[in-house]
Design brief:
Length: 261
């Protein structure tokens, strides 16, 4: 992988992000933060950073499993929360999701049903955060943001984003620096919005290659052909990245109005 993408002073980055968390919470007059802890790398890094920034008593870990959440993911999330010494609450969501999807006679698509799960989790995050005077800490990273690989008003519905400037590969390196378990750091990306769901079901390549491609496309302003060559991927992969980025522009912008068009 190109060295400029990997170049990250992990100690300085940890300090920079924790200061950002502290100032964001202070400016909002909030008492703490809610982190939706999935057992994956992104939420684990955000949780660890929030504990460093605010202390364990000002962080609530919310575990929101569905019926098809892998037991290992739930165990990892519990273990992380208990290691940090933060409060954790578990709210199974499948009953809530089922009540929503069964309330209409129309048969929803697979993606529509999956997005309901993400949006139910967002509602529960905010229910607890509003009840406590907390903010909702987002767990999205730069790789997911550029691809639009998240649910609008679901996991994209948060108050602030501590790691949205870091690519997935950088988040993994930061996770190792923060002392997270190896099995969490190396766990394959997986939204788990349906049984066996993996990120590779929907994205064109592994993040170790996609991050290089996106870094060259969006940070270095390289041509698609150049990005494909450096990333070691077919040009079709780059074209899919460009397509996903374009088609998800609406996720990264405020809803359009007559004054904005």
């Amino acid at each position: 992988m190109p060295r400029d993408l990997l170049r990250l002073d992990l100690r300085e980055e940890t300090s920079r992000i924790t200061a950002f968390i502290q100032s964001t919470v202070e400016r909002a007059g909030a008492k703490g933060v809610v982190v939706a802890l999935s057992g994956g790398i992104d939420s684990a890094v955000v949780g660890a950073l929030c504990v460093r920034a605010l202390g364990k008593d000002r962080v609530l870990a919310l575990l929101l499993p569905s019926d098809h959440t892998p037991p290992q993911d739930l165990d990892d999330a519990r273990r992380l929360a208990d290691t940090w010494g933060v409060r954790r609450e578990e709210i199974p969501i499948s009953g809530i999701v089922g009540a929503i999807t069964s309330s209409t006679r129309a048969e929803g698509t697979k993606i529509a049903k999956a997005n309901v799960q993400a949006r139910v989790r967002m509602v529960l995050d905010y229910y607890r955060a509003n009840s406590l005077g907390y903010l909702v800490a987002g767990t999205g990273d730069r790789s997911e943001s550029l691809l639009g690989y998240y649910t609008k008003w679901g996991d994209g519905g948060v108050d602030f984003l501590p790691i949205a400037h870091l690519y997935k590969t950088q988040v993994r390196r930061l996770g190792t620096h923060l002392g997270l378990p190896k099995e969490v750091v190396e766990k394959p990306a997986s939204p788990q919005l349906w049984p066996g769901h993996k990120a590779l079901d929907e994205i064109p390549a592994n993040y170790d290659k996609l991050d290089i491609v996106m870094h060259y496309l969006y940070d270095s302003k390289a041509t698609p052909k150049e990005a494909a060559a450096v990333g070691g991927v077919p040009i079709g992969v780059v074209e899919r990245v460009l397509g996903m980025h374009k088609n998800s522009e609406h996720k990264r912008a405020m809803p359009p109005s007559l004054e904005s068009v």
